[in-house]
């Protein structure tokens, strides 16, 4: 059988799109498919512009939330015509044209919201399938186009948004968002001593590499002083944050400060409560583990939309101000029935093995199985 040549388009704004790409590549490799080209499309097309917009994205977590929210919502074609995106798409179109003229692909899988791919297909009328894998729980119109042959989405509500926007239901598969396989294989939580009233509960705080919680030391202190907790803080690759927290909480055995970790699934599995920002990947990982969530104040844009959906479906408590985080954590810990309800809602909405479902469907669309060498 002919092994397909696959182009995967991604983006380096945060880790979400790259994580989805890596999960898809891992699933393809499991099936012996290795003829894959990965393109960080906008960076390759225009590194300077990408660097500028990426810095804006990172600053949105601290200083530029209103700016990022304006750019996000005003680039939604359902709301307005935003010409900066047209300029970016032109650069993306040029890079896609270069890739398509260099290689003979059997399918293109896109993990980044853009219109460059549909524009290319309109102008060149390629017959190969173009696939969108949506990386959030909410819809932005930059994912939308009749030129896309199939859409993979996180859940029912997102499928409804797509169909309401004119996409045929036949072109939509509810797959979940691809995450690392370790989150599916983590064993069910055993009954630990910490599950009793006398022993510390475990709180995991995913601070992220971009400092999404401005007053993180104060949050840690409030939790430490007000309850019997074991607190683990993940700083990612934010060395400055890691060093300052290590210094501040040195010698306190119930507070553990970690940098970048490889065993996030294990840490989440051990936690009774997790504090996290509402990125698509973080939320998908929490759904897999079914760890109750307290969400940090969300940046206007896809993360705010994700957070509101999780709040609406009873899968998380959303804090709108940082001062609400600690009270939300303590309230949850005192209400086991609410924890059970959140876990149940997460279980009902969890879509396992997303990457495998996507690759199964992609290969059936490409019809690889009947192509002989």
How would you describe what is shown here?
Helices cover 46% and strands 14% of the residues. The chain has 16 helices and twelve strands. Strands 2-1-3-4-5-6 form a six-stranded parallel β-sheet, with helices on both faces. It has a six-stranded parallel β-sheet with strand order 9-8-7-10-11-12, sandwiched between helices. With 373 residues, the chain is an alpha/beta fold. The model is unreliable at 75-83, 188-195 and 368-373 (pLDDT under 50). The protein has helices at residues 16-30, 41-45, 47-59, 65-74, 83-102, 116-124, 156-164, 182-185, 216-226, 239-248, 264-270, 280-289, 302-312, 325-333, 336-349, 354-366, and strands at 6-10, 36-40, 107-110, 130-133, 150-153, 172-174, 201-206, 229-234, 255-258, 273-276, 293-295, 316-318. Helix 12 links the parallel strand 10 and strand 11 (293-295). Helix 1 crosses helix 16 (354-366), helix 5 (83-102) crosses helix 6 and helix 9 (216-226) packs parallel to helix 14. The chain folds into two domains: 6-176 and 353-370, Glycogen Phosphorylase B (Rossmann fold, 3-Layer(aba) Sandwich), CATH 3.40.50.2000; 182-349, 3-Layer(aba) Sandwich (Rossmann fold), CATH 3.40.50. The relative contact order is 0.13. The longest helix is centred in the N-terminal third of the chain and has 20 residues, at 83-102.
């Amino acid at each position: 059988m002919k092994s397909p040549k696959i182009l995967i388009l991604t983006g380096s704004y945060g880790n979400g799109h790259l994580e989805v790409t890596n999960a898809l590549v891992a699933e393809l490799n499991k099936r012996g498919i290795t003829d894959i080209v990965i393109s960080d499309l906008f960076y390759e097309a225009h590194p300077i512009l990408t660097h500028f917009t990426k810095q804006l994205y990172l600053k949105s977590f601290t200083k530029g939330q209103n700016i990022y929210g304006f750019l996000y919502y005003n680039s939604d074609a359902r709301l307005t015509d935003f010409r900066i995106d047209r300029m970016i798409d032109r650069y993306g179109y040029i890079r896609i044209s270069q890739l398509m003229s260099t290689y003979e692909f059997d399918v293109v899988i896109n993990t980044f919201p853009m219109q460059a791919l549909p524009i290319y297909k309109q102008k060149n009328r390629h017959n190969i399938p173009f696939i969108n894998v949506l990386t959030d729980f909410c819809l932005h119109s930059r994912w939308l186009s009749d030129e896309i042959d199939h859409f993979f989405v996180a859940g029912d509500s997102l499928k409804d948004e797509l169909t309401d926007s004119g996409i045929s239901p036949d072109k939509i598969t509810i797959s979940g968002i691809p995450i690392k396989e370790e989150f599916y294989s983590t064993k069910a939580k055993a009954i630990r001593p910490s599950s009793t009233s006398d022993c510390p509960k475990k709180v995991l705080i995913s601070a992220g590499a971009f400092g999404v919680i401005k007053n993180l030391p104060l949050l840690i202190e409030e939790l430490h002083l007000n309850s019997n907790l074991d607190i683990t803080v993940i700083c990612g690759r934010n060395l400055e944050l890691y060093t300052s927290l290590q210094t501040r909480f040195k010698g306190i055995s119930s507070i553990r400060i970690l940098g970048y970790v490889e065993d996030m699934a294990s840490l989440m599995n051990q936690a009774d409560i997790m504090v996290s920002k509402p990125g698509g990947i973080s939320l998908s990982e929490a759904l897999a583990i079914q760890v109750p969530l307290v969400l940090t104040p969300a940046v206007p844009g896809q993360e705010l939309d994700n957070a509101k959906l999780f709040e609406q479906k009873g899968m998380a408590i959303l804090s709108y101000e940082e001062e609400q985080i600690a009270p939300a954590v303590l309230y949850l810990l005192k209400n086991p029935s609410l924890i059970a309800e959140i876990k149940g809602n997460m279980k009902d909405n969890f879509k396992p093995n997303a990457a495998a479902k996507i690759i199964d469907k992609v290969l059936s669309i490409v019809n690889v199985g009947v192509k002989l060498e």
